[in-house]
Amino acid sequence: MNSLDWAVLIGYFGVMVAIGVWSHKRVDNVSDFFTAGGKMPWWLSGISHHMSGYSAVMFTGYAGIAYTYGVTSFVTWSFPIALGIAIGARLFAPRINRLRSRLHVASPLEYLKNRYNLPTQQALAWSGMLLKIVDVGAKWAAIATLLAVFTGVSLNQGILVTGVITAIYCTIGGLWADALTELGQFVIQLLAGIAMFVAVVVELGPHGGFFGVWDEPELAGHGKPLVGPYGTVFLLAFLFIKLFEYNGGMLNQAQRYMATADAKEAARSAKLSAVLWLVWPVVLFFPMWMSPLLVDAKKPDGSDAYALMTEQLLPHGLLGLVIVGFFSHTMAMCSSDANAIAAVFTRDVAPAFSARARAWTERKGLIAARLTTVVFLGLSMAVATQVDSPTFKDIITVVIKWVAGLMGPIAIPMMLGLLRAFRKSGPTAALTSWAAGLFAFYLVNYPIDDAISGGVALQYQVSIPLAVSLVLYVVVGYVKPEDTPERDALIERINTDDDGSEGAVAPAPSPRRGDAVAP
User: Fold this and answer.
1) b/e string for 192-202 if b means 16 or more Cβ within 10 A?
2) CA 71 vs CA 65, 74, 201, 354, 460: distances in Å
3) How many Cα atoms are found within 13 Å in the side-chain-facing hemisphere of 500?
4) Is the Cβ–Cβ distance between 307 and 111 less than 8 Å?
């Protein structure tokens, strides 16, 4: 990097902070901070939903998969995300929006207290927050790894810089700041991604051009959709995981649906995000697929290939723009996660333990939300310094094994609890599936993995916890049905179309003092 690249990077940070300050004027209460008051246009929500699913892990961990295996990086990652969101546009997005518009909640988990009970809500809230701390920690480590390649700063320095800048704008402006910065970040990564795509295509001339390049020996097997540890079982498991995760199971994407005016707008938002996930990653991944022809990765997993290729192919100024693109992905995801976790803590966790928290005024609730955001970011930055430790091993291990493996047990009770078909599954089914899924994750990743020669295959490490949770949630619900008139009425309120027919639905019970939802 030279002075021009640094100017681009510093200018980007300045704009992000300025957007946060401007967004501060639009935040008057907790609803504005967490769900934009339900005033976000569908197209902004869709772009925000799309951007909040990326991070620099794509340019490190997934760049390594693309470098080693080729197009399977798209087939087993962004394609199932696109398909999952497309399904969720009909199945989950409208219902999640009605949590805000009809039940007046600011956090998706607020609904779970009345849908199940307080212990279930707390189990999912605490486990979801802890998993998110680890997940975001991996994202900080990924962007710091890239920054180290370009600038030579240490891992910890890179984590500190990106974390502090993100904390400033998302703490000041809430979800509005997240969405508006993500819009700007989308434009930046659009320019950066196209610049990198064109630069690589130009370099392919001596290798047979855009179509003939696939015959090169360095790309042997790169055109196969499922190779290595990323087989059919992994793809199917990832589709189910991403169906739950990217439609609200990891909380931050749920807020984008809640932020739109109504259920139809939420569905349009999801459809836009699905299209972006299907098309745009191809542009980003293509240079990564070609990277074995252009650079020799220094790391065994190839995670530095994209950064090395960027340095080699792009002139200064454009290099700075691509680096800003790396930051835009990571900061978009981490800020949205921070906002979601702050919502969970201030709306779900703190009121369950403190009478004072249940009596917070709008002003005190807003202060608590901002303080929680800062604390969450600080904890995730601390975890980021340990990503390469023996516990976590490396960035892609955290993202695939830990996050994907633990997502099912946490998300299944929340997401399926929105649907009429699973109304018989109550607190017993939810807690049993959650606990058994977590225990299955522990078994296949540690005792069993250590006992088997060669270890448990990755596809089973991520699929078994999901399968255990899904089966138990359904089976226990039928063996021990816990549907009640109150729960059925609550489910009906979020399952009725916006056609005026909701008046025929029995009203949900009035909440007691301290309850999570208000009809």
Assistant:
1) bbebbbebbee
2) 9, 5, 16, 51, 21
3) 0
4) no
Closest CA to 417 of 433, 436, 437, 402: 433
Q: How far apart are CA 140 and CA 136, in angstroms?
A: 6
Q: How many CB atoms lie within 10 A of CB 443?
A: 15
Question: Can you list the domains of the chain with their CATH numbers?
Answer: 1-387 (1.20.1730.10)
**How far is residue 398's CA from residue 389's CA, in Å, rounded to a whole number?**
11
CB atoms within 10 A of CB 273: 31
Pick from 127, 177, 57, 212: nearest CA to 430: 127
Q: At what angle do helices 232-244 and 405-416 cross, to 10 degrees?
A: 50
DSSP 281-325: HHHHHHHHHHHHHH---SSTT-TTHHHHHHHHHPPTTHHHHHHHH
The identity of residue 42, as a single letter, is W
Q: Which amino acid is at 208?
A: G
Nearest CA among 1, 52, 44 for reference residue 333: 52
Contact call for residues 424 and 483 (beta carbons, < 8 A): yes
d(CA 287, CA 236): 26
Written as one string, the DSSP assignment of 91-142 is HTHHHHHHHHHTT--SSTTHHHHHHS-HHHHHHHHHHHHHHHHHHHHHHHHH
Q: What's the distance, CA 429 to chain centroid?
A: 26
pLDDT in tens, the chain (519 residues): 677 777 877 777 777 667 666 655 555 555 555 556 677 889 988 988 888 777 667 777 788 888 889 899 999 999 999 999 999 999 999 999 998 888 888 777 788 888 999 899 889 888 888 888 877 777 777 777 777 767 777 777 777 877 777 777 666 655 555 667 677 778 877 888 888 888 888 888 766 666 677 777 778 888 888 988 888 888 888 888 889 888 887 777 888 898 898 999 999 999 999 999 999 999 989 989 988 888 888 888 787 788 888 888 878 777 777 777 666 666 666 666 676 677 777 877 888 878 888 787 777 777 777 788 788 888 888 887 776 555 545 555 656 677 777 888 888 998 999 999 999 999 999 999 999 999 998 898 888 877 787 778 877 888 889 899 999 999 999 999 999 999 999 999 999 885 443 433 334 443 443 444 433
Q: For tokens 């990743």, name the residue.
A: 445
